[in-house]
Amino acid sequence: MKRIWRRAVLPGLLALLATALLPAAASARPAAPHLAAASAAAPATYGVRPATADAPDNRPNFSYSATPGAVVVDHVAVSNVSNDPLSLKLYPNDAFNTPDGGFDLLASSAKSVDVGAWIAVEQDQVQIPGRTTKIVPFRLSIPQNATPGDHVGGIVAALVTEATNADGQKVAVEQRVGARVYLRISGDLVPKLSIDGLTADYEHSLFGAGDTVVEYTVRNSGNVRLGGKQKVTVETPWGSGTAAPNLPDLPELLPGNSFRVRTVVPGVLPAGWLDTLVHIDPIAPPGPQPQAAAVDASVTVAAVPWLVLILLLLVVALVLFLLWRRRRRRARPVPEPEPEPTPEVEHAV
Question: CATH number of the domain at 193-306, please?
């Protein structure tokens, strides 16, 4: 069993709340039940997980394969591990990738347009006594015009509490946990990643090698959720290459989502110009689907070898000076020798 999205609302952060609701992050956690601990005088712990009509089961998430127009009926278990009774909101919502590549669900005030809008829970508010679990049915109704591919969302249980902000105003704090919903609709599956906005900047030093800062955006431009193994290499004109060290794998990107990558390739010689190459091998989730093609992109960046250039300029300046000095000597007029005096000859009379 896999634990799913957990957030503890720390008392020190309550002073920063200025809105009516605080959307909680939803990060994947391994382990058994999906639990969350609320910040209160008596901490409340609760969670949600897949279930049968009678009890929680061992599924790590809700995962379905269906056709447009299909209807899926399932159950979610909402567990109160605290001693006191809890009143929890229960609602579905769409998923998205955070800027750091994490998995999250839309805030309760946001409107879902995908699988979160296709799910209807039987109860949107559940009252759960302490140390008990309640099973709630829900219905997933797939529209006839639903597009093929992966549609991802979740079912959220939220505890709304009241707190006081720095201005002394009462604000509502929503703490939530959720179980992921993965839906794959049959049809033309297109697993595809693309690379946008590739830039490279060479940060040189006067002596020796420098660093190349590489940035790019990886976008899931297909309809299947994908991760990937990435490689960044900087090559000189004569073919030697330096790879970015310890470059992590891409997080799993949902269709239509993107992830910005920034990495530094150290120890690159200033060779005049450098070719920056990015290569990504997509990784798809388990299951039958077409093989995603590898993705490549490149950009050229100037890397001026300033030390060599300065030495070359000095040599050129020295050569020009010597040539100028030589020409000057040749152009200087040579004085004509003075004629020797003609000796006088005495004639005898």
Answer: 2.60.40.10
- Residue 272 and residue 283 in contact, taking contact as beta carbons nearer than 8 Å: no
Q: Coil, strand, or helix at residue 155?
A: strand
With beta carbons less than 8 A apart as the criterion, state whether 258 and 97 touch. yes
Contact, 69 vs 142, CB < 8 A?
A: yes
Which tens digit of pLDDT belongs to each residue from 256-292? 999 999 999 999 988 889 999 999 999 999 888 899 9
CA dist 35 and 82 (Å) reads 11
**What pLDDT digit, counting tens, does each position of 73-101 carry?**
999 999 999 999 999 999 999 999 999 99
8 A C-beta contact, residue 281 and residue 229:
yes
**CA 47 – CA 67 distance, rounded (Å):** 30
**Cβ within 8 Å of residue 164, ≥6 positions away:** 14, 170, 171
What 3-state DSSP class applies to 318?
helix
CATH top class, domain 11-185: mainly beta
- 275: Cβ–Cβ under 8 A, 6 or more apart, which residues? 234, 235, 298, 299, 300
Contact 158, 88 (CB under 8 A): yes
* Close Cβ partners of 155 (under 8 Å, ≥ 6 residues apart): 48, 62, 76, 90, 91, 92, 119, 121, 138, 178, 179, 181
Asked if the domains 11-185 and 193-306 are classified in one and the same CATH topology, the answer is yes
234 in Cβ contact with 210 (< 8 Å): no
The pTM assigned to this predicted structure is: 0.76
Residue type, 112: S
| Sign of the dihedral defined by the CA atoms of residues 27, 137, 225, 218, in that order | negative
The domain spans of the chain are: 11-185, 193-306
